[in-house]
Amino acid sequence: MGSTAHSPPRMLGRYALYEKIASGGMASVHIGRLLGPVGFSRTVAIKRLHPQFAKDPEFAAMFLDEARLAARVRHPNVVPVLDVVAGSDMVILLISDGAMAKLYPEIFAALKPGATLGLSHGFLLGHLTQSGESFPDGVDVIAVCPKGMGASVRALYLQGAEVNGAGINASFAVHQDVTGQATDRALGWSVALGAP
Fold it and tell me: Is 121 one of the catalytic residues?
């Protein structure tokens, strides 16, 4: 999955994943952008393991072995390896209330034990409470909730890049902490979001 002219790119850590430019038996190569602070960006090629192999530990290990080996090779005909981004154990739900109410069973089923479920508002907690259900036991559940609506939140984010101490006003909450790291993850997400 990449990006089309009408959809935003998929983010993988600091990398924006755009259209696929090549594909092989085990992986595909996409155009990407490395995004950094203060507007820095750099065009990169991103090699991504095919989804059907990404969950197979044997294929994942072969893919990482290939990356380690390629990182040691210095030759004009070999593209250097800049970074390896492993699959995240944090799932962030930034979807509409209706979609959240419909999709949460599938999302919960895909969570690995010890993963973190991040929410952008409290709708799902209220929905589960009213339905007599709860979040999965083996995962952290956190929320980072920006104050305001789309355009105002974006304006505050941009202001925070230029004005020391300015930025997005956000609240964070820890609903469930099974790993002992939920508060650190919520604070890290708040800072990454642009909250001072």
Answer: yes
